[in-house]
Design goal:
It is a single chain. The radius of gyration is 51 Å and the shape is elongated. It has three domains: 86 residues; 150 residues, GAF domain (Beta-Lactamase, 2-Layer Sandwich), CATH 3.30.450.40; 145 residues, Alpha-Beta Plaits. Helices cover 57% and strands 15% of the residues. The N and C termini lie far apart (140 Å). By secondary structure, the chain is α+β, with helices and mostly antiparallel strands. Helix 4 runs antiparallel to helix 5, helix 4 runs parallel beside helix 9 and helix 5 runs antiparallel to helix 9. The chain contains 14 helices and ten strands.
Amino acid sequence: MDKKFKNLSLFSTDLHRKLIVGFSLMAVIPLLILVYLTTGYIFPQEEHILNISIIVAIGVVIAILGFYLTKPIFHSVIKVSGEAKRIAQGDIARTIKVKGEGEVGDLEKSLNLITEKLRKNMAEIQQYGDRVRNVNIEIGKKMMALSSLLQIGNLMVSSPELEKVMPLILDKISRIAFSETIFLMTSERKTKELVTMFSRNIKSERLKNERVRFNEGFLGKIAARGERLLIDSSVKLTKQMKDFTDDYGMRNVCFLPISLKEQLVGLLVMGNNLTDFVYQKDDLELINIFGQQIAIAVENDWLAKEAENLAVRDKLTGLYNEKYIKNCLKEEIKRAIMYQRPCSVVMLNIDDFEIYKKNNGELAAESISKKIAKIISENITDIDRLARSDEDIFTLVLPEKNKGEAVKTAEKIEKQIAEFSFPGERAQPAGKLTVSAGVSANPIDGLTAIDLLDVASASVEKAKKEKGKNV
């Protein structure tokens, strides 16, 4: 059918033309009726009167043609309208079958194009939402890690003891990479063995008491290598890896050697029993950061213990401590033996100190310890050495003094303390705060520091039991 024939009124695809033709045909009926009335009644000439049956037949035919022409138009419009309504209600998965041509066909194509763009836009929005959600999750992880690091840092500042810091560190690490099981093996400085010291949710009793020599066995070799090792669903397991996961019930494991100044100080092991699990880059970065915190915590613990070992002063009174006085006594005994000179020890014990502390409190007990330390200090010479060797015990090393001179020094100190007025002392069993003294001397009571200290301590106990204290 050529273009000219197609553009004829009854065959045109143009909706505008179809509607004009359809309504024009529908308008022919009243025109025919008007002609009929005019010729039959107004000008009733016999030769011009038309047969009414012919007029009606022509009108019916024309009406049918008009109806036939307009029906598909309204049907198509109603169909497209229904499809548009469903799309507006959210059913963007629909696709309209394009049957018509002209304006209706263009409308169907346009609706399909709109829904296709909507689907693409919705997919992009969904992808964007997923990205935003993932970003928020990562931000949450970073914020949690930062908060955890601040908590750990504050705790390390307030307490350098590893026993107090490590439980918090392990608790924070356990929240990374679904680490259900976690334990830390620390290196013993003398034996160079790795020993499980801190753990969470270890099911294997063997692992709780694990001891591994450096560079021996599976764990020892991982530690010696000094590099992180991962076992997850993306790794092809060696026999040793499989044996480890089977023995300790962990399908996925992260091994992180902890080093401090190129020296191995521990091995952090964490894992879970999830299927199809892979360690993510961000999780591994956080694990490395917490590994550094562990190294710092270990170093702080070492430094604190070394400082404690090097300390020679009692924190409360400022006197020497027990470790110093023992070393001092050893040196003085060596000198006394070499030059054949005397050396004595006086040990002073505060009587019923626990009762006083119970009645008056910790602060009052510390206060009387300081006052007694001051009284003793005022009764010794510059070459004498005084230490607070225990909470209620003071030890004097008296070079160049024999046992008799040491006894006189002890009695003088006992008397001054008994005469001193201490707050709250009336509640003491004796009604006064007193001390009991014990004396020993070289070479009468022994030739070593341990001998003299043991004899002085026994003498104190004897004074408390036999002499009624402070005698």
